[in-house]
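Input record (Table S2, row 438):
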Amino acid sequence: MNKLTVKDIDVKGKKCLVRVDFNVPMKDGVITDENRINGALPTIKYLMDNGAKVILCSHMGKPHNVFNEKIKLNKKEKKAVEALPENEREEATLAYIEKAKKDVSKFTLKPVADRLNELLNGKVTFATDTVGEDACAKVAALKEGEVVLLENLRFDAGEEGKDLEFCKKLAAFCEVYVNDAFGTAHRSHASTAAIVEYGLVKTAVCGFLIEKELTVMADSLERPVRPFIAVLGGAKVADKLNVISNLLEKCDSLIIGGGMAYTFLKAKGYEVGASLVDLEKLDYCNEMIKKAESLGKNLYLPVDTVVASSFPNPIDAEIEVDVVDATNIPADKMGLDIGPKSMELFASVIKNGKTVIWNGPMGVFENPTLAKGTIAVAKAMAEAEDATTIIGGGDSAAAVATLGFADKMSHISTGGGASLELFEGKVLPGIACLNEKE
Ligand code: AMP
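Output record (adenosine monophosphate complex):
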């Protein structure tokens, strides 16, 4: 960690624009999981206690750009409109725009501001716009130790579009930029990187959440206590090409489960039946198998697999399953989870690890019958007591939390996409832009 943190600078009396990740799950206007709010609290409290004027900003979901004059349709809507006869397109577009305006209530950060205000003893106000009149007035009125949360930045197209004018307005709010949104650190948007990249704010530091994520994950990747085991699962090989390649270089053993394992099995010449296979990636898998051999790394694939005749529909429907050898899946069956022998094998490798990182489920874990492999990996990690165990966010983090193993892990990342990019060896734009320590 060679980036400056909030502790390295003087924040007293300074206006600090803090990019946080308040993209919390909501149902009917009620926050259903406060983890992301809690994750940002240490930085916010530190700034308040040290006399900063705190301007918080975040996105929430994927709303339309309702703060712009011209509201753009999203990709799905555009496609639907294009599929219509020409004379119906205008009306359909207008209907989507009307719907977008109504959807504002689904994406507003107001409920987060209210909750934060409770947690921070009434010190928090909410601006009903991002860089408009209300935000300007509320920022100007801030006193030391007070906080304003701006409305959802993605209501303005300037956020994702890195619009210079939008960046200038955001930057005009502050003397110091703090990034504490690890979940969006892999994105280069106005508030996550561009306002610093454009040279609009000179003092740019990270908060405690990003500091922790980086310290634990980057250090484990660069200086792991060995044996270092990486566990990868999830649907497709194509989504994790660079992750597989980079982790092979860093780890001692790479375990591959989930949908992506079948492309590897097929590449080895095995029969995989109707399992998910990415034919275009067979050569890539062979390359990785060779790479593992030449580097002297262990590459573990499932030795048996849970199969069914079809994909469960709905996903959590009751399903009849069988267990077969992973080397010979019947033509009419698809592999949907790792089998019991694989669970045992993977668990024994994991338990021998001193550093274990994991991203991606071992099977269609949304279905209780097909969640056993994912549970077995989570359990093995929980039992690897003297290992540093890191969960790379996303589905694996959700699985660990549901199983009640969260407190048994060394670190559960708050960013699935961001941690995968760290695993790929990429430099995240939201971190690259921050000031380095001398
Ligand atoms: P990802 O987003 O790449 O981490 O993939 C997660 C998804 O992979 C989950 O929704 C799983 O249901 C799915 N998945 C895991 N194993 C399989 C499998 N064997 N066949 C099809 N989908 C799978």
